[in-house]
Amino acid sequence: MPQALFAESPVHVVQLTDAHLFAAPAGTLLGLNTRDSLEHVVAQVRREQPRIDLLLCTGDLSQDASVASYEAFRGLTAGFGAPARWLPGNHDEAQVMAKVAPELITAVTDIGAWRIVMLDSAVVGATFGLLAEDQLATLDQALATAGERHCLVCCHHQPVDIGCAWMAPIGLRNADQLLLRVKAYPQVKALLWGHVHQEWDQVREGVRLLATPSTCIQFAPGSEDFQVSEEQPGYRWLRLHADGQLETGVERARDFVVKLDFDSPGY
Length: 267
What we know:
The structure is a single chain. The chain is of the alpha/beta class. The protein has a single domain, classed as Purple Acid Phosphatase, chain A, domain 2, CATH 3.60.21.10. It is 21% helix and 25% strand. It contains five helices and 15 strands. It has helices at 34-48, 67-77, 94-100, 133-144, 175-184, and strands at residues 11-16, 28-29, 32-33, 54-58, 84-87, 108-111, 114-118, 150-154, 188-193, 200-204, 207-211, 218-219, 228-229, 234-240, 246-252. Strand 2 (28-29) and strand 3 form a beta hairpin. The chain starts with 10 loop residues before the first strand and ends in a 15-residue tail after the last strand. GO terms for molecular function: 3',5'-cyclic-AMP phosphodiesterase activity.
């Protein structure tokens, strides 16, 4: 499709990730009520993002993989009035997610001048990620047929080293397969993920690499061993322009008071 046929206005995207909701509204991680923190992040989004064209939810939406937790997530994020796309993380159960919101589990979404590809990197019973053959085939097909569209590829697990030694073994195990494909298709402008509970933003070989804070507890950047920070929960906004340029930033729920209890059940 010729570029001139795409709308000139950018596509407005919001990413929410790693909510870790429980079936019980009172469920907490390290003493932090994950439903309460998500509510504060959602309120921050509503204050700051008057237009949302697409909501990307990149895994670990639930901590206990319960129907009630996914229903709660869907209810808390429904007010944006925008289409949403979900993918599973290592704490999720893809079949339960699909039972609650089957229409939100879609691998490829074309919007404006962009193609959004959502890849399932979760491995049953494991914390690390892996793109199975069917997911790589989905990616191959999506990129090969993208035409004039620019591509944003999303998964849960980090495909690059983010400088946290303890997280390296629980990243995407076959990231090389993903990165080879990204290199082969210059229309891929960015990779976007969750899992790491912190902000990450770099450009490598012309591709923007982006990770986003959790809507609940945060992990300390640059930590050798497991370490949390007391930064506030947050979200990422993206502006996807018709010429392939991408603007993005992270915002925090500034009115949310982080009080952690290290004697309570943790991550």
